[in-house]
Amino acid sequence: MSNTYLDQFPAEAKVVRAAFYSSFFALAIGGLFGIVQTLHRTDVYRFMDSADYYTVLTAHGVLLAITFTIFFLVGVFTWAVTTSLDRGVENLRFTWAWYGLMVIGTAMAAIPIFAGFTDSIDMSASVLFTFYAPLQGHPLFYLGLVLFVVGTWLAGVDWFRSWRAWKAEHPDERIPLPTFMVLTTTIMWYIATLGVAAAILLFLLPWSLGLIESVNPLLTRTLFWFFGHPVVYFWLMPTYMMWYVMLPKFSGGKLFSDPLARVVFVLFLILSVPTGIHHQYLDPGIAEGFKFIAMTNTMFLLLPSLLTAFTVVASMEHGARQRGGTGYFGWLKALPWRDPVFTGMALAGLMFAAAGFSGMVNAGMNINYLVHNTFWVVGHFHLTVGTAVALTFMAVTYWFLPQITGKALWSRPVALVQVVLWFVGMTFMSNAMHRAGLLGVPRRTAEPQYEGVTFEAAVGSVGELNAQIALGGVILTISLVLFFANVIATGFNGRSDELPSNGYADALSGPEDAPLVLDNLKLWTAIAIVLVIFAYTFPLLSIVQRGGLFGPEVITFPVSLESLAPIAAALEYGGLATVDGVASAVTGALEPGRIAIAEVVR
Amino acid sequence: MGALLVVVAFTVPLFVELRTVLSWVGVELTVLESVALAAVAIAALLVWALWPESDGPDSSNAG
Amino acid sequence: MNVHTYEKLWLIAAMVLIVGFIATITYGSVGLGIAMVGDQQETVEPTELADDERFGEPRVEQIGDDEYEVYVVAQTFSFQPDPIEVPENSQVTFHVTARDVIHSFSLAGTNVNTMVIPGEVAEMTVEFDDPEVYGVVCNEYCGPDHHNMEGQVHVVPEDEFDLTEVSVDAPDEVDAGESATVDVTVENRMLDGLETTAELEIGGETSVEEVALEGGEATEVTFTVDPETLEADDSDVEWAVTVDDHEERGTVTVIDAGDEDGGDDGGETDE
């Protein structure tokens, strides 16, 4: 008789299963759109109008960066809390309620996005994942995002309820590590989503409904990045959790250090949010000093990731030595490379190291000039969210599936080939994206082939880079097909009694070595909030002071083809002049401020 | 076999960037030459690992 | 807390690395002078750019010996002016704003790259050395035709560069037997003086006038064309005005008495 998660918590296993399947559904559509874009952009195969590329890109971004990752996260976190506290959720209906809210939110946001493909429905939200105003999506899009986020907030409430109930029964015990990770991540998420909630509820939604006439594009953009950077840690934290509490188990050993794991998550809690301005290094209207502060905060965020690298590798080595590995590097041979779960996670971790290096370049404030908004950035986040996160999720799915279905995985060899193919495909694709970015090839464009702009490759040619990207995309697609084949075929398997038990890795150095202060969530929350106030009060005040809370008058730009004609006509006609000339009385008093000198790099 | 598969996968990034590294010392490879070089290297790796006489190939230790 | 020795060493190495990164970035800012696009510039009203002192006329302006300012407006889906022409060995300060949505102004393959946000003005100073043509792309998604938004910056040899504006006022039609006057306005927007010629070619005859202008001056040269010159086989007489490498062309229609056939593509042009 097995002792899987399904056996322990049959009702919760259904929730986790629903969350995972929702996540995979988003992955399937998002992945399909991924290959469509790859082939379109590289001009290998184009079957749609280039204007539709941006609709595909919006769906790809929202479905993969938000839906796929966060649905998987709520599944993992629910598993982690129930397993590590050894108690079911407090109220199953509440749990299903937040899951339902997330599904409704996703559907509401998806409707206007997909309506963008057809002219027969007067609805569109081709505003990309970042929805920068004055580009304007359909109100349903913003409303859907709000509901989705509220769903995640309630999920957080669910996990906190479980913890409080557990704490009442175990007053003197340390918070189990997986629950600790869930709670710190959730607090970080609450703080981070305040930004996007403010952007949408105060500005974008009323504006799309016509309640307010104008918005301040720099303000909504800044509020977006207040959320937009920590959201990457929201994807990454469940990944880190898997590396900390599962990878040592799959390597055959124990987690190296429980206290250090707690330190890492506390650091992410306090440093994730006050860094968002590093996405705005090149924004006019934000003073250089604020950018410098964001840069130093960002660099210090390297610390928890570097600590993680140490702990993960040390845990793997411990596991390998338990399995009989010896020597300085010989122990590597003793690792279970035939296990797709282990191999996928190890390869994901390795790719994340590469992503860390390109991330350091992005974070380098003045080096960022060279790569900002180029294809380099796309290469970077296909290594982070596209591999470190996605590949870890896929690999660990091969362990989770039997746990939540009670059925044995359909094929481990296929799973092994799948994770290795992902690594190979992403190597080709991401490498060429980075290289193309260095030549100045922009991101987010349907046709990076210009009449008057040439990109000069130092080695090889742009054509070769495109071929490499297309090849990578095709390999990744094959990998995805294998993944879904495995997930679906597993569903058709019968119940098995020979499955491994539910559980996670023990620690060599356990929670008893961790100072009590680490578990003081109130303290860390307070510090996190103070840091956010420090980092954001002055930039936000300055932005509002410069451009006004609701901005200068901007031209609303609904993203659909039909609406372009009247706007163009209005521009020609010049009938846009307004009465309030007061603000425009720029008396020629150009500030004699410092001169920015950027040498042209040749 | 698992470890061997991973090692083969690892040759990919090496050979993808080999062109860049070689161009620093003035050696310009074409795509075809890179692919050929990678194929030779992977073949050599496989022969080394799977040679029957070989004592203790990677595959025997892999889990 | 029980921290392993290796882990302590790793921690120290990590901190050294981080501090090292921050130091290099700081050196880039302070030592090399690579400043960030900041908040030096006053905001603008995106809907009133036409009346704006800075952006009413997107242009290149000389402010010092080798110093220029360029005022650029980005809008769906083009840049103004395009191409932007500046001389070699110059220090050029770009001021860029957006008329509608968020764009970028990015010289491909260089680190000249800035976001362009409606209401805000991005300012960045760039040193150009040798003559070269740089492609400019918008690298922020700005709508369905985003991929067609491009421009160019031409860095030209010093002796090919000027900021001369030429406009010609010529009649569309003249009555047969009467003379015509062609007014040529030459404006020198450079700081240095300009000595050149204005040349009118009409009906196979060429007349030349000397033009001498101080920096920032404008002058008008008037050519009077004799009725004989306008006698041609065709009733349409073509003309061309040339000042250095600026050329304006047009046609004058000579109307015979009783012939009411007016000219169609006549002459008032403005560069």
From TrEMBL, chain A:
Tell me what this protein is called: B(O/a)3-type cytochrome-c oxidase subunit 1
Protein keywords: Electron transport, Heme, Iron, Membrane, Metal-binding, Respiratory chain, Transmembrane, Transmembrane helix, Transport
Q: Domain of life, per the record? A: Archaea
The record's listing under PROSITE patterns reads: COX1, COX1_CUB
Q: Member of which family?
A: Belongs to the heme-copper respiratory oxidase family.
Q: What is its main location?
A: membrane
Q: A single GO CC term, please?
A: membrane
Where does this protein reside within or beyond the cell? Membrane
- Please give the InterPro entries that the UniProt record associates with this protein: Ba3-like_Oxidase_I, Cyt_c_oxase-like_su1_dom, Cyt_c_oxase-like_su1_sf, Cyt_C_Oxase_1, Cyt_c_Oxase_su1_BS
Which membrane topology describes this protein?
A: Multi-pass membrane protein
TrEMBL record, chain C:
Where does the UniProt annotation place the signal sequence? none
Q: Which Gene3D superfamilies match?
A: Cupredoxins - blue copper proteins, Immunoglobulins
Lineage, top-rank taxon, reads Archaea
Which key words tag this protein in UniProt? Copper, Membrane, Metal-binding, Transmembrane, Transmembrane helix
**GO cellular component terms listed in the entry, alphabetical order:** membrane
Q: Which PROSITE patterns match?
A: COX2, COX2_CUA
Listed InterPro entries:
Ba3_CcO_II_C, CcO_II-like_C, Copper_CuA, Cupredoxin, Ig-like_fold, NosZ/Cyto_c_oxidase_sub2
Give this protein's Gene Ontology molecular function annotations.
Answer: copper ion binding; cytochrome-c oxidase activity
Which segments cross the bilayer? Answer: 9-37
Question: Which CDD domains does the record cross-reference, listed alphabetically?
Answer: ba3_CcO_II_C (cd13913)
Q: Where in the cell is it found?
A: Cell envelope
Please state every residue range assigned to the domain named Cytochrome oxidase subunit II copper A binding. Answer: 65-167
Entries under PANTHER family matching the protein:
CYTOCHROME C OXIDASE SUBUNIT II, NITROUS-OXIDE REDUCTASE
Q: What is this protein called?
A: Cytochrome C oxidase subunit II
